[in-house]
């Protein structure tokens, strides 16, 4: 039987050299944690994703395991050079890329073409210059127009002032800012919005409000405006009324009824029934008188030299009276608010 010889296992090497030689580790040999951490830091450094590892320094007099905080904050505050370099190359490639520049130019051209197309389509029906004319108002004009709508009996002058060019030719009428008798679209638009809000508040106070009530109220108001504008345009065509009454003028005069309607609607839930009906008839007559005096100079001109005026004069008077009396019906429909539930 063979016996184990320690000298033969060492390969015949002296004892001192055997002690210096480190034993070979097997697959299940324990690994030093400190050595494993150093290997991971070296691999992370060679991969190029982080800064070179620095040995952890300890403050003198501090307990073991406490690192120097200023160096840690300084190391965290330093930006990653690889990250900045990547974004720098990306921006430089985008600037040097001709395809990207052509794409930006094409997008800008497409937006400009779309804007011009919208302006051309809108300009077929309504001129933006004329639309700005009807919104050229001032605080003094708004107060004066509201006063005329509430108390039209005290108004004496109803003629509109003509606007002339440098040669003295009449090119139209002055804007509402310069003429209190000129129709505008600011008060009708604000009146429509205020009417819808007031109806919503009153229905909400009654405890039966629903979000669909606002849409129902706005649809009813817009339906009345469309009906009246189409009715006036049809009669203007039958009675041969030309450029004396423009489409935006009709729209403006039709929208003034919301001022009177709001006052009547505010009286209805709180005032007695007799005061509500008194308010209804007063503002109905006031609006009818306002429409007659405002449309009279357009439908029935004072000059008798215009062709066809003497033939259609009587019919135009009847038509103007019908427009005035319909204001009662419009206010009555608008004041009969109800919930959509």
Report on the architecture of this protein:
The longest helix has 28 residues, at 98-125. The protein has a two-stranded antiparallel ribbon. Helices cover 64% and strands 2% of the residues. With 341 residues, it is an all-alpha fold. Mean pLDDT is 75; it is low at 6-29, 52-79 and 304-308. β1 (162-164) and β2 form a beta hairpin. α9 (186-205) runs parallel beside α12 (257-267), α10 crosses α11 and α13 (273-299) packs antiparallel against α14.
Whole-angstrom Rg: 44 Å
H and E order = HHHHHHHHEEHHHHHH
Given helix and strand content, the structural type is mainly alpha
Strand content: under 5%
The major beta sheet can be summarized as: 2 strands, antiparallel
Strand order of the largest sheet: 1-2
Intertermini distance? 109 Å
Mean pLDDT: 75
Helix content: 55-70%
What shape does the CA trace take?
extended
Number of helices: 14
Low-confidence stretches: 6-29, 52-79, 304-308
* β-strand number: 2
Helix-strand blueprint:
Layout: H1 6-9, H2 15-20, H3 33-47, H4 69-77, H5 81-96, H6 98-125, H7 128-134, H8 139-150, E1 162-164, E2 170-173, H9 186-205, H10 212-238, H11 247-255, H12 257-267, H13 273-299, H14 309-335
Antiparallel strand pairs: 1-2
Summary, kept brief:
This protein has helices at residues 6-9, 15-20, 33-47, 69-77, 81-96, 98-125, 128-134, 139-150, 186-205, 212-238, 247-255, 257-267, 273-299, 309-335; strands at residues 162-164, 170-173. With 341 residues, it is an all-alpha fold.
